[in-house]
From TrEMBL:
The keyword Oxidoreductase applies. Belongs to the dTDP-4-dehydrorhamnose reductase family. Residues 3-288 form the RmlD-like substrate binding domain. Catalyzes the reduction of dTDP-6-deoxy-L-lyxo-4-hexulose to yield dTDP-L-rhamnose. Its cofactor is Mg(2+). One of its GO terms (molecular function) is dTDP-4-dehydrorhamnose reductase activity. This is dTDP-4-dehydrorhamnose reductase. It comes from the Bacteria. It comes from Arenicella xantha. Its EC number is 1.1.1.133.
Length: 291
């Protein structure tokens, strides 16, 4: 049986990957096994785990805090990723790594292609972009999946923040001038499993399959509309969502105004496409209600 090492234990994507990858021997490497804040240890520790494939959904993901904790963000999102990629290049071990829509500056008005110019507006996005570049320059057999606006019933995310606020508030102000594609962590895990199945079946990654792929739920919306939709799906009818401009919700990190990603490359190369964000949201709400 093929051994898959998934890095991170309690993250959103990691949590759902553990549920869907049951056909494989799964090694869930939490911080006690692989600490990404100590990049220099990683090659030796990875060798001990003998992975057939490595999936890395672990990252420094605190967008605003990253503006202060610059070193921590770069250590985890760039330096650790560089060591993982160098291990994968040396051992010819396929790597599936996650990146973000926040590598873009948000000035576009049609969905971003993988070949479009990047221009992160904050430290988190810049550190994730540096991680992508480290993988590409290591020449590792790697796929970089750029996803966006990840939510679920686990961990810290906008969906749970809104449901939490709804318990004490009947009115919320939410930005309506940032447009993107909310992506359910379960949809990510299911799409990632399809990719793993293909890589295992092929016996590895073909050279022409390496590189960056956009990987979000289909469609687009604003955070304000997403808030309204998630309340509706959860039968919460007593909370009013007031749309506001980002200038009325100042944050340490600037977010891109538009970060919709075009997913055609993944569909063309691997035949994989994630569901529409509205379909996935209904699934997530069903899971919320069943808890
Ligand atoms: N969340 C989002 O909205 C988006 C996320 N992404 C990217 O997708 C990927 C998955 O995100 P998501 O699941 O939401 O992330 P989470 O914030 O839910 O989880 C982060 C994971 O990283 C692990 N981690 C953090 N620091 C370390 C460390 N020093 N050593 C080992 N592990 C560490 C955490 O470990 P522990 O379990 O111990 O806490 C956790 O498992 C990331 O690469 C992220 O950049 C892209 C776009 C949007
Ligand atoms: C809680 C809250 C947030 N907002 C705004 C702030 C921000 O512009 C937007 C989203 O807020 P959050 O801080 O939850 O989301 P944010 O941390 O920016 O989420 C990002 O996380 C990283 C990891 C990614 O990679 C991105 O794709 C993206 O998902 O909503 C409101 O307008 N009203 C509110 O009450
Ligand atoms: Mg956040």
């Amino acid at each position: 049986m093929k051994r898959i090492v998934v890095i991170g234990q309690n993250g959103q994507v990691t949590t759902y990957l553990q549920r869907v990858l049951s056909d494989y021997e799964l090694v869930v490497a939490g911080r006690d096994t692989l600490d990404l804040s100590k990049p220099r240890e990683l090659q030796v520790k990875l060798a001990e785990l003998q992975p057939d494939i490595i999936i890395n959904p672990a990252a420094y993901t605190a967008v605003d805090l990253a503006e202060e904790e610059v070193d921590a963000a770069y250590t985890i999102n760039r330096d650790a990723v560089s060591e993982i990629a160098r291990y994968c290049a040396k051992q010819n071990t396929p790597l599936i790594h996650f990146s973000t829509d926040y590598v873009f500056d948000g000035s576009a008005d049609t969905p971003y292609l993988e070949s479009d110019a990047t221009g992160p507006t904050g430290v988190y996005g810049a550190s994730k972009l540096a991680g992508e570049q480290a993988i590409l320059s290591a020449d590792a057999p790697a796929i970089i999946l750029r996803t966006a606006w990840v939510y679920s019933n686990h961990g810290k995310n906008f969906y749970k923040t809104m449901l939490g606020l709804a318990e004490s508030r009947n009115e919320l102000s939410v930005v309506s001038d940032q447009v993107g594609a909310p992506t359910y962590a379960r949809s990510i895990a299911e799409g990632c499993k399809q990719l793993v199945d293909i890589i295992i079946h092929q016996g590895g990654l073909l050279p022409e399959q390496r590189g960056i792929y956009h990987f979000t739920c289909a469609g687009q919306t604003s955070w304000a509309e997403f808030a309204r939709s998630l309340f509706l799906e959860n039968d919460i009818t007593n909370v009013k969502v007031n749309p506001i401009p980002s200038s009325d919700y100042p944050t340490p990190a600037q977010r891109p105004a538009y970060s919709v990603l075009n997913g055609e490359k993944l569909a063309d190369v691997f035949g994989i496409a994630l569901p529409h964000w509205g379909t996935a949201l209904a699934q997530c709400a069903a899971e919320t209600k069943s808890q």
